[in-house]
Amino acid sequence: MPSVRDLRDRIRSLKNTQQITKAMKQVAAAKIRRAEALQKQSRPYADAIGAMLRDLIANVGSVDHPFMKPGAANAPGGVILMTADKGLAGSFNANLIRSAEIHARANANLAFYAVGIKARNALRRQSGETLQVWALSQGDMFANAQALAQRVTDDFTSGRIGSLTLVSPKLVNMMTQRPEVRQILPIAPDKEVGENAKGGSVEFEPSPEFVLGRLLPKYLEFTLYSAMLETNASFYAAQLVAMNNATDNAKKLIDENTVEMNKARQAAITKEILEIVGGAEALKG
């Protein structure tokens, strides 16, 4: 059984840990509000550019753009793995890495792009080639998204990769962040939208093909930027939940160890009293 001193040291250590987790919980709560605000501000633009893209694809006869054509047949498939730069967020990063590993087992010959320090560390264990690494929350996030979009565009158009898949989290709510695997390139037209939109009276100037050629690179940039914003918000939501659970668990352990310390202290006091009484009886005898 641990001594009173050991239990007291353990309680002191747990209290220090509880202070750290409580501080990290408050930081995560403050940062997630800003991350969610940025995500909500970008949502109207994402909806508008997506709707415009669907209208354009539905109103053009043939699209002469690399994003709308199949990639090189023998080229590896490109995969963007998005994680956070830091940990202490429960299974958030592990779930994303596991989704990428499942995708890699189902599809051979892959080349990876890492967004986030945890993704970079995980891809060192993967068999595929890691083409480039970006940090998620260091520097200007939109500039990083533009650089990532430019790199994957160059690789796709030059035939270095034959497709592009994004592995990133979807922020369902504060308690749930679900990994998502979706194909980004080539862009497949929506058949239902195309059939319903044909015959519309929308006119484009100078031409639908010209507008679409300018819109597709912007669409790719903003798709990646939006995924980065959602990854950042999902990380802070996961960290908030993890630190809240850690704080509660620390409190439970402190209470349990306090009870054990009181029992050990009471046992020590009882033992001393018995020794004193025994000594007094021995002196009388």
Put the structure in a nutshell.
It contains six helices and five strands, in the order H-E-H-E-H-E-H-E-E-H-H.
How is this structure best described in words?
The protein has helices spanning 4-59, 92-106, 117-123, 141-158, 191-197, 208-284, and strands at 77-82, 110-115, 129-134, 163-171, 177-185. The protein is α/β, with parallel strands linked by helices. It has a single domain, classed as Pyruvate Kinase, Chain: A, domain 1, CATH 3.40.1380.10. Helix 2 (92-106) links the parallel strand 1 (77-82) and strand 2 (110-115). Helix 1 (4-59) runs parallel beside helix 5 (191-197), helix 1 packs antiparallel against helix 6 and helix 4 (141-158) packs across helix 6. The longest helix is centred in the last third of the chain and has 77 residues, at 208-284. The relative contact order is 0.18. The model has no long low-confidence stretch (mean pLDDT 86).
* Shape type: elongated
Overall CATH architecture:
3-Layer(aba) Sandwich
Can you count the helices?
6
N-to-C span: 34 Å
The main pleated sheet reads as: 5 strands, mixed
Which radius of gyration do the C-alpha atoms yield?
A: 29 Å
Low-confidence stretches: none
Q: How would you spell out the order of helices and strands? A: HEHEHEHEEHH
CATH class: Alpha Beta
* CATH fold name: Pyruvate Kinase, Chain: A, domain 1
Return the structural class.
Answer: alpha/beta
Side by side, the strands of the main sheet go 3-2-1-4-5
- Return the average pLDDT rounded to an integer: 86
Number of strands: 5
- Total domain count: 1
The CATH superfamily title: ATP synthase, F1 complex, gamma subunit
Strand content: 5-15%
User: What helical percentage do the residues reach?
Assistant: 55-70%
